[in-house]
Structure formats: structure tokens, C-alpha cells
Predict the structure.
Amino acid sequence: MPTDCISYQNSGYFSSLINDYLDQKDNLQSLYNRFPSVENFDAQIAEKKINFNGNGNGNFNDNINGNFNVNEKRKVLVSVLDKQYDKINTSSSTLNNIKLLNNSNTFTITTGHQLNLFTGPLYFLYKIISTINLTKELKVKYPENNFVPIYWMATEDHDFDEINYFNFKGRKFRWNKESTGPVGRLSTAGLDEFFEVFAQELGSSKTAETIKTLFKNAYLNHSNLADATRFLANELFKDYGLVIIDADHPDLKRLFIPYIKEELINQTSYKKVTETNEELKNYSIQVNPREINLFYIEDDLRERIVLDSDSNQNDIYKINNTKTTFSKSDFLALVENHPEKFSPNVIIRPLYQEVILPNLCYIGGGGEIAYWLELKSYFDSVNVTFPILLLRNSVLLATEKQSKKADKLGLSWANLFSKQNDLVNLKTAELSEFPIDLSIQKDFLKNQFHYLHSLVQQTDKSFFGAVKAQEAKQIKGLENLERRLLKAQKRKHSETLERIIALQNELFPSYSLQERQANFSEFYLEYDNDMIEKLFATLKPLDSRFDVIVLP
């Protein structure tokens, strides 16, 4: 089978919320600014230009004693990026993109990701390639503007257990280390032993040596996880102009001071997101807000800030799981002097991003888009432009051998996306020499009993219960026969069905999407940079589809 695609909605792997968002259902339209289409970026550019370049949020800043000029944002942003790239050998494309951020007609397209060890799951690549490809498409449509792809490193996260491993050829490689603070500051000490184990698994081919060098230069030659991840992402995508940002920086946090204060004083995010979640009560809620959606951070500490009161009913701010407390005045003074000690959680991090970047669109997975949809009313309340939300590209990579197997077994890609039990039942019915679906017989039986029900109504209604019971008994008998026929045919065609199951398990490891399980190195080992070039050539960010790519 050749390279193909299916819609996200038909893939069976996205929530009802995301499917309804993609279908632009009326009940969700108040929860986003503009739906992702190339035409809708025109109005998004105009709005962001006013909000970011001008004084679009001046009233908000004045209300909480904001003390920075929003026109200085670009200068601060570029200064920080220059420092972060000072010791990296990057491309002229990336350096030019950083320089372009000084200009009022330059905007960003952003994706974010945790600092997963060696990129973690495959979709790390898909996120970034989606982002880069969208900037190219927008430049063609709006040539008078510049569009810079941004990878936002989640350096302030503290969920180390979520990022300390990756899977390679079905084996989990885990970095065993203790971590309590923001992961970007975590020392890479000890990864040399991890590398020795992984290197043995890679072998000694030319491409294996390339992967080993990439890992060593990233993790063994950099002292912390943020610098290591920046190096790795830069090596993979510098030729495409990707700009990588670590927002755990005092100068960037200073731009966010008014919003930190607002959160501590008014807790608007809690109120607004709670209201929105009530609108979403018919869906699974992705995240619930805290009363205060900020953490307090040190190198080895990231704990929630909890609001309490003393005996005189004065506000007291406590650092969870510690004995540290602050009065309101002392805490607000700390915000002014050391904003880097305050870290936004999942509710406020998107706002931080949109405050410091001239951003038009956020590209994320289904779970990310789900929590972004909770945030628009909060953004509106603090007068920050809400970005366009775009579901990242999803991909299934298949080898030519797997594609030929599917052809031989009479499987379409849509078949392979089915739940395994459904797929086995479908193929059993197709392989059977006679019909094992007795729906026709059940319908015939129901029609006969429909006649008997009408007869009972005309004669003796006391027979109704007996007729109903007889109908249920006979329908159940046909259903039992149907199950026995299916079971018998599964035994008869077990060899073919086992091959079908084996192929699906190869493509969907652990009954999950390949992109959520496998690491890029597994495919890079076989296909080198051709794999990445194929992804760039195939992925169309604004097309709502799940791409299936057959690698030669």
C-alpha cells in the first residue's frame, strides 16, 4: 500500500472534545479565537500586531502597577535568545530568525514539549516539523510578514518520571535519578552509564555511530538537561531555522510580573477556568485549576503556592510541603525583585508564552488542545490575544515490508487503525466461506413476532408477556449461534488472523499509537536523515489528517 492518510476523526484515537473541535461544533466556538485555516491568520496577525506591538494590554498593566513598556518585549526576547544561543553552533537561518524577532512584522508559530530524554516519543519530531512547515506556508500567503518557528522547552516542569526514559525496539531505557526541582536545571551527571547500555543496543553501523555521537554531544557534553535538549533539537532542526527558547529566565519572567501579581492577588485564572469547565461538563475535563496556579521554584524545589490567612485575617502565602510563608507585601516585593522564583503551572504557562512571544498559533497534541480550550475567557479577562489552536500532525511510519504484508492480507490502513477485536471479527467474516452474520435471520424473526404482537392485541392481551419472552429466547438463540459460528471460523482461519494481529501489533505497539511509543532513533537507525526529509515533504499542518508514510 502507498503512503496514505485518514482523518483524525476516523482514526479512533482522539477524544470527543477534539473531534467536535475539528468539526467546528457550535457549542465550542466561544472557547477559541479563530479556527486554523490559512485565511484566518490574516485577522490573527492584525489582532496580535495591536496587542503585542502596541499598548493593547496597557489598562490591565496599569491596574496592577505594571512597570514595563510592552514595546520593549521584542528587545528583551531577542537579548535572551542571543544569550541562550551564544555557545551553540547553530545555522544562519536560526540566527536570522532570532534577529527578525526585533521587527514588528515578525510573528511566531509555537509548539512546546517536555525535556524527554533523547526526544522521547516520535511525536516530538512531528510537533516541530508541523511548526516549521506552517511558517513556510504562511510566508507564501503573507509575504509582507515573517514567521519564526519556536520550540518552547518545558524546562520548569518537575514531573521527572514522565521524561526520564524512551523506548527503542520495544525495550524501555530509563535514566534512574532523583529529581525534585525544575527539570531544565537537572544535572546530566550519570548519563554516561546510561549511554553505554544504549550504545550496545545500537550496534556499529555508520548511522548508529551518528546517533551515538548525537547523544554524547548533547548529554555528556552539557551540564544540565535544558542545555542538552537545546543542543539536540538544534542539531536536528537548525537547518530549518528553528528557534528554541528556555523561558526559565529572569528577564523574561520580568515581563510577566503584572500577571504573576494578578494571579496572587485576584486568582482570576481559577474563577474563569472553573466557569469554562462548567461549559465543558459533557466532556472529560483535561485539567482543573488550583486557587493559585503558580509554583515557587529553586534549583531543587518546585512547590505550589497556597493562599491562607493569619489570625487577623491577613493574606498569608505558603509554599506547599515546606515551612516557608510570606506576608502579602513581602511576597509581592519578591515578585518585583525575583520574578524567576515564580513558575506558572499548566493553566498559566500558555499565558506566559503569549505574553512574551509575538505568537499567532500554538501547535499541540489532543491533550494540549483540550486544556487550551479551557483558557480563552481567562485570556480575555487579562486582555491577551488568544492564539489559533492547531492539532499537530500525526503519523504512522510503516516499512515497505509491512505495507506488502498488509496488501497480501487484504488490509487497508483504515482496517489497521481499528480496535483489534473489531478487526479480527471483520476479517473473520470476510474469510468465512458462508455468512456468519445472522442479522437477516434476526430481522425476519422480529418481523414474525411483530405480527404475533399485533395478533395478541386483537385477541387476548394476557398472552403479550409470553410472546415477548419467546421472542427474546429465540433472538438470544440466534445470537448464541452467531457467536459459536464466529468462534469456529476464528479457529479455522487462525493462521491468517495471527498474521493480521502480529502486523497490527508491530504498527501499534502496546495497542497504542506508534508515535506515542517509539523513539525517533529506531527509524533513524534504518533510514538516516531521509526519514526527516520525508516527514517534511509529507506533513501539511492545516490538513486535519493522520498521515501513513511508507518508508522504502
